Amino acid sequence: MTDKRPLTELEGRVVVGNRVGATLGVPTANIAYSPSDKALEDGVYVADIVLLDQQGQVYQGVLNQGNHPTVPYGDPAIEIHLFDFQGLLYGQCVRIRYWHYLRAEIYYPSKELLRVQMQQDILDAKRWFGENPDYCIK
């Protein structure tokens, strides 16, 4: 059973990213952030997103916060892949809640190895949500 409080949460607006996740079959919503403002260490987290512009709908996902070392172009970012979500979120205001730390950011020598790890991260995050059905979703 989880504590029912997120590790941290933040609000922001979804921005256009470099579409790397989408090209790897794992589309993400990107939220800009300043590394000096971060509350937690960079890495991969179990997270959810509250769509503030859509009556507070909540979607579960897996999040990467950091410098994306395998594909290092662009500013540090928060990127969240949402399970069972179809659509575009560009420009929408969201609240992201970090629930559980999975692992540190790692450099992979190829995008294919990164894609494989991303798939594992998705499975690990879904497993966490399955093992913690009473986590706070509102």
Question: What report would you give on this structure?
Answer:
With 138 residues, the protein is α+β, with helices and mostly antiparallel strands. It has one domain (8-131): Elongation Factor Tu (Ef-tu), domain 3 (Beta Barrel), CATH 2.40.30.30. The protein is 18% helix and 35% strand. It has helices at residues 20-23, 111-131, and strands spanning 8-15, 29-32, 43-51, 57-66, 77-82, 93-103. The chain is globular and about 40 Å long. The model has no long low-confidence stretch (mean pLDDT 88).
What fold name stands as the CATH topology? Answer: Elongation Factor Tu (Ef-tu), domain 3
- What's the SSE pattern? EHEEEEEH
Helix content: 10-25%
CATH architectural grouping: Beta Barrel
**Largest sheet composition:** 6 strands, antiparallel, barrel
Spans of at least 5 consecutive residues with low confidence: none
Q: What is the number of domains?
A: 1
Mean pLDDT: 88
Coarse structural class? alpha+beta
Number of helices, counting only DSSP H or I runs of 4 residues or more? 2
Q: How large is the radius of gyration?
A: 14 Å
Q: Biggest sheet, strands in spatial order?
A: 1-2-5-4-3-6
Distance between the termini: 17 Å
Outline type: globular
